[in-house]
C-alpha cells in the first residue's frame, strides 16, 4: 500500500470514528434530554447542566490525554476511548436515577477527552508531523456530518427502543465499529521525537505568551459557536424573522461549515494557517454587521457567513498550533491550549441565553466584540512570528 493510500485510509478511518464518537456523546443530549428528564422528574436544563459539567471534566483531562498520545501514539488512546465511551453509555442506559446518571456522564467526560477532535488531531500530528494539515482538514470534512448522522440515528433508536436502548445502541457501535477501526487500521507511530526549538519564539516565555494568545482566540471562538448553536433560531426571530424563516436559515449552518472546509481543503490548502485563522475569526463579526444593517431579510446570509467561519475555525484549532509550535509535544500542548475553549463552550449556552432573554439580537454585539478581540490576538501572533 502506497504512503498516499495509507494516509487516505487513516483519514477515512478517523473521520468515521470521529463521526461515531461525536454522535454518541456531544450530540446525544439534543435528542435524549427530553425523555430522560421526563423519566427522572427533572427539567431539561438539569440534563444539559450535567452535560456541561462533563465538558468541564473534558477540559481538565485534555492535557493528560494529549500527553499520552505524544508518548504512545493515538491508536491505543483512541481505542481505549471507544471502550470508555461504551462503559459510560451502558451506565447511562442502566442508571436508576440521577446520581448514577451523573457518574455516567463523568465517564463520558473522560472518553471525550481521549476520543474527540483534539485527540484525532494529535494522532495525525504524531503520524505526519507538519504535513498533517490536509489530513486534519480531511477528518473535519467527514466528521462535519456528525450531527447530520448522529441526531437521526439517536432519534430512530429512541423511537424504537427508548432512550435507554439508544444508549445501548451507541455503546454497541463503539465496540463493534469504532474500536476495531481505531485499533486495527490506524498506523503505529514512530518513537516520539525529542523536544525541538519552537519556530515562532526564542524561548519559553514567548512560547507561553503565544500559547495564551491562541488559547484566548479558541476560547472566544468556542463561546460564540456554542452560544449560537444553542440559540440561533431564537436570535433570528428576535431580529424580525418569522419562525419558519429562522428555521430555514438555521438549516444552512451545516452546509456552510462543510463548504468552508472544502474551500480550506482545496483553494486555501497552501495558505499560511495564520491567514486562514484570521479569515475565520473575522467572519462572525462581519456576519453580525450584515444582520444588524440588513435585519431579517439578511438572516440566511448571516448564517452562511457565520457558519463558514465556524467551519474553518474547527480546522484552525488543529492546524494553527501545529504550524506555530511544531509536532513535538503537540498532544499535551493542544490539550492546554484548548482547555479554555472547552470550558467556554460548556457555559456559553446558559450565559448567552440569559443575555438573549434580556436584550434579544443585541446580544450579538458581545460575540462580535469577542471576535474582533480574537482577531487582534492573531495579529499579535504574527508580530512574534516575524
From TrEMBL:
Major facilitator superfamily (MFS) profile domain mapped to chain residues: 1-386
Top-rank taxon, per record: Bacteria
Keywords on record: Cell membrane, Membrane, Transmembrane, Transmembrane helix
InterPro entries listed in its UniProt record: MFS, MFS_dom, MFS_Efflux_Transporters, MFS_trans_sf
GO cellular component term, pick one: plasma membrane
Organism listed in the record: Neoroseomonas lacus
Protein name (Swiss-Prot/TrEMBL): MFS transporter
Cell location: Cell membrane
Record carries keyword Transferase: no
Example of a GO MF term: transmembrane transporter activity
Transmembrane parts of this sequence: 47-65, 77-98, 104-128, 135-155, 161-181, 212-232, 238-258, 279-305, 363-381
Annotated membrane topology: Multi-pass membrane protein
Any coiled-coil regions, as ranges: none
Pfam family, one: MFS_1
Amino acid at each position: 500500500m502506497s504512503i498516499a493510500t495509507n494516509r487516505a485510509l487513516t483519514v477515512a478511518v478517523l473521520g468515521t470514528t470521529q463521526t461515531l464518537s461525536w454522535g454518541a456523546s456531544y450530540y446525544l443530549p439534543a435528542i435524549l434530554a427530553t425523555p430522560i428528564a421526563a423519566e427522572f422528574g427533572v427539567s431539561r436544563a438539569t440534563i444539559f447542566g450535567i452535560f456541561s459539567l462533563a465538558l468541564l471534566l473534558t477540559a481538565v483531562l485534555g492535557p493528560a490525554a494529549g500527553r499520552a498520545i505524544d508518548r504512545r501514539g493515538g491508536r491505543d488512546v483512541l481505542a481505549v476511548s471507544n471502550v470508555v465511551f461504551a462503559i459510560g453509555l451502558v451506565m447511562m442506559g442502566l442508571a436508576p436515577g440521577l446520581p448514577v446518571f451523573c457518574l455516567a456522564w463523568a465517564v463520558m467526560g473522560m472518553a471525550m477527552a481521549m476520543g474527540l477532535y483534539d485527540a484525532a488531531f494529535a494522532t495525525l500530528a504524531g503520524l505526519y508531523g507538519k504535513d498533517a494539515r490536509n489530513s486534519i482538514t480531511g477528518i473535519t470534512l467527514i466528521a462535519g456530518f456528525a450531527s447530520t448522522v448522529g441526531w437521526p440515528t439517536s432519534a430512530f433508536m429512541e423511537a424504537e427502543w427508548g432512550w435507554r436502548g439508544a444508549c445501548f445502541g451507541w455503546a454497541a457501535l463503539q465496540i463493534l465499529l469504532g474500536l476495531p477501526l481505531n485499533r486495527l487500521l490506524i498506523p503505529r507511530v514512530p518513537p516520539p521525537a525529542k523536544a525541538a526549538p519552537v519556530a515562532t519564539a526564542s524561548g519559553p516565555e514567548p512560547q507561553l505568551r503565544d500559547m495564551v494568545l491562541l488559547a484566548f482566540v479558541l476560547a472566544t471562538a468556542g463561546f460564540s459557536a456554542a452560544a449560537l448553536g444553542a440559540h440561533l433560531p431564537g436570535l433570528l426571530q428576535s431580529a424580525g424573522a418569522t419562525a419558519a424563516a429562522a428555521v430555514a436559515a438555521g438549516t444552512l449552518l451545516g452546509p456552510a461549515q462543510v463548504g468552508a472546509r472544502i474551500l480550506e481543503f482545496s483553494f486555501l490548502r497552501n495558505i499560511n494557517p495564520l491567514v486562514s485563522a484570521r479569515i475565520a475569526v473575522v467572519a462572525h463579526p462581519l456576519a453580525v454587521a450584515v444582520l444588524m444593517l440588513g435585519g431579517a431579510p439578511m438572516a440566511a446570509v448571516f448564517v452562511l457567513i457565520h457558519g463558514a467561519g465556524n467551519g474553518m475555525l474547527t480546522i484552525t484549532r488543529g492546524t494553527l498550533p501545529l504550524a506555530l509550535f511544531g509536532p513535538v509535544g503537540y498532544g499535551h500542548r493542544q490539550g492546554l491550549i484548548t482547555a479554555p475553549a472547552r470550558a467556554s463552550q460548556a457555559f456559553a449556552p446558559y450565559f448567552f441565553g440569559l443575555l438573549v432573554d434580556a436584550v434579544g439580537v443585541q446580544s450579538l454585539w458581545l460575540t462580535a466584540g469577542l471576535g474582533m478581540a480574537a482577531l487582534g490576538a492573531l495579529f499579535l501572533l504574527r508580530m512574534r512570528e516575524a
